[in-house]
What does this fold into?
Amino acid sequence: MIFVTGGAGFIGANFVLDWLAENDEPVVNIDKLTYAGNLESLASLQEDNRHIFAQGDIGDAGLMSELLEKYQPRAVLNFAAESHVDRSIHGPEAFVQTNVVGTFHLLEAIRAYWNKLEGTRKADFRLLHVSTDEVYGSLAADDPAFTEEHRYEPNSPYSASKAASDHLVRSYHHTYGLPVLTTNCSNNYGPFHFPEKLIPLIIVNALAGKSLPIYGDGQQIRDWLYVKDHCSAIRRVLKAGTTGETYNVGGWNEKPNLDIVHLVCSLLDELCPRADKQGYAEQISFVTDRLGHDRRYAIDARKIERELGWKPAETFETGIRKTVQWYLDNQGWVANVQSGGYRDWVEKNYQDKIG
Ligand code: NAD
Ligand code: DAU
It folds into this structure.
């Protein structure tokens, strides 16, 4: 079996769902259930005993050791993190605690477990650490996209904490020989995305008749990847990646924020027109910029394509249409996030699944 940390979050939940749709290998999902953890996203696995959930903190090395000893996984995939840049600006401490200190304790628990493994079980063990393109800093308009050789230049407390975790992971390979893999991915979008991030926030606010906040001039560029493509990249790296290597994952899909917002508005105009027949773009509102806002990210994803044969299946046009439709079809999920009701999901629906 495999361990997934942070599997109740946006990408982690998509990964667990995809993993169990693709094969029968069980998953132990360890998640602290911060505000971003939502077990309702995994409701379809309620009766599926291939999914074992344990509420816990990656920084709790005692608990992590206990779980590793009990379940003897062949791999740990670390998605757990504080992930929202704006929150890191308002309150960086949780980012240092989870992303840096938490990753350190997780590494220590894994190192102790891995040291006791023998033969092929030891050789075949993998820690896959899920990281971000934000560790590379910001690009000028005509700079080439980030390759794996780009130097680390993190600019926000979030990206600095992720960079620190990447360095710790790298050092455990170099120093102790721990078989690690690191992926650095661009902006994801898709189902189960918490509506504090740009795309789900725009969809949810648009439907609620609220304003659509654009930071600064809206010309910041991100490289968007449909979340299921990220999941397939992680499966591929886990299977075929070379230990000690890092792999950049991206969608070849750079777009300014304002273009994204206009595209989402026009899809909503088509799929769920406003009662007054005005366009949703009417709700766009330019607001004060994010502090230290990175201007442009772009991933050069040639290494993972060349070495592992992975490339994204979705174009932005197909992925964003699926995403907008998903939010229209799952307004109950959104309502529970907004009311905070999703936090009761554990007590109401999941008690028998908690390890
Ligand atoms: P998310 O915020 O939606 O989910 C994070 C999950 O981790 C939540 O379920 C939360 O409860 C859990 N968690 C937080 N602290 C924990 C702790 N101390 N112990 C155990 N669980 C904890 O984040 P996401 O968008 O799904 O991102 C997942 C990973 O992918 C993160 O490491 C993030 O840095 C990275 N990443 C995200 C994106 C993106 O666009 N969202 C892009 C590249 C990389
Ligand atoms: O690049 C990968 C990163 O993408 C991940 O590592 C992070 O975990 C993830 O949150 C995401 O970070 P961003 O800061 O790029 O994502 P966010 O959705 O917060 O913002 C996307 C862009 O939209 C960014 O330029 C800020 C802008 N924005 C965001 C919000 C929430 C707005 O203009 N208005 C908004 O209300």
The chain has a mean pLDDT of 96. The pocket of nicotinamide-adenine-dinucleotide (ligand 1) is lined by residues 5-6, 8-12, 31-34, 36-37, 57-59, 79-83, 98, 102, 130, 132, 162, 185, 187-188, 194 (CB under 6 Å).
